[in-house]
Amino acid sequence: MDSKKNTWNKALLYIKSRIEETAFQTWFDSVKISSIDNQKITLLVPNRFHYEWLESKYRHLINDAVMHGFGKSYVINYSVLLTEKTPENIPKFKESKKNLLPKGYHRPSNLNDRYTFENFIEGKSNQFARAAAISVTDKPGQTLFNPLLIYSSPGLGKTHLIQASGNRMIRKNNNLRILYITGERFMLDFIASIQKNKSSDFIKFYRNVDMLLLDDVQFLAGKEQTQEQFFHLFNDLYQKEKQIILTTDRHPTKLIGLQDRLVSRFQSGLIADIQAPDLETRIAIIMNEAKHTGLSLSYEITEFIATSITKDVRILKSILIRLQALSALKNIDITLKLCRDVITENFGDIAIQQINLTQILGYISKKQNIPKRLIIGNSRKKEIVLARQIVMFLARDLTSLSLKNIGLELGKRDHSTVIHSYNLLLEKLKTDKVFSRFMNTCREELSKFSTIQ
Predict the structure, then answer these.
(1) Across all residues in the chain, what is the average pLDDT?
(2) Rounded Cα distance, 357 and 370, in Å
(3) Of 33, 96, 149, 269, which has the fewest CB atoms closer than 10 Å, so is most exposed?
């Protein structure tokens, strides 16, 4: 069995080389091989949701990995790990019969009612996190998704999602005690309770909730006494089957300065990540925000903003606020030039690359030794099609041209062809390391063509 487990580890390495690191950590770090015979392999997974996600999203990859590792195909079965609902060594806390708050404490939810699932724009980058955030509101605290931890870089929607969970719960039952709090606020409340000699009031306040939403857990890193207090709060709420939802800016195993026992608690439930949104999702976010604020934007301007700002949804929204203010206060139309000026003024020239498609076409033509006329033309030869797709991909990433204009300049193709080519190469970049290095070289060399205007 040990040798076959080692072979499974080889299969895992195959998977790891073909997907993002965060995806591997989320979906495959916790998968173990349970049993194996001549025909089937049984994999042990943390919960049913985990199994369903693997089956729907990674079934073909797992089959390929097994073939790679074991040299033959197997039927893949799954077994859900059965664990005790209460973690080991959770101290038993007595719940007060009186459901009263300490004097001087109030019960605000701190929720912003603007944050709902209905106005959260779903895309491939956040689909799983959104589904998980909705799921925990169906049976809060009573599923294996407790705690639910959502992590991502700043500005990608973590706060929106956890507050949407809280708002959904309140709509279901407005008598529920929902508390949204940041890691910093929790620490400040704890310090204040010590200074005012009101530690017992602090404890009663935080333990008297039905759902705790703690944003930016990473703020607790390095603060030992605050972590100690939160550890006992976590255990108490978990034991009473109260739902806990957390957010952080990275995977919990990468949080330096956080106690191992807290990290272990965070990993005992469900972990979901949010990636930077793709172009289509960014466009949808801008259109939704513009509609909400009554801002009228052309598709060309919308696409320009979406291609200029790629990694932070908050920045996208701040640009729209700036444009709306300029348009209203100065009574001017929102033009492409105005958008460019706003982005450059607020985020620097680096946000907008000034290389043009002609330069990209010439560069790829020379590098691949393929005449430009063939790249623009209708040849279906494999190497020419790939060169054409590379030009489209780089033009979309490095220029401010709309998809429509990229297609027009490359043989009067439509924007859907550009999107299709872009998505094909995105997948190729994930699995082909040689191609990934080639594209990085292209970017570096093309950056020398850039001229900021």
Answers:
(1) 83
(2) 16
(3) 96
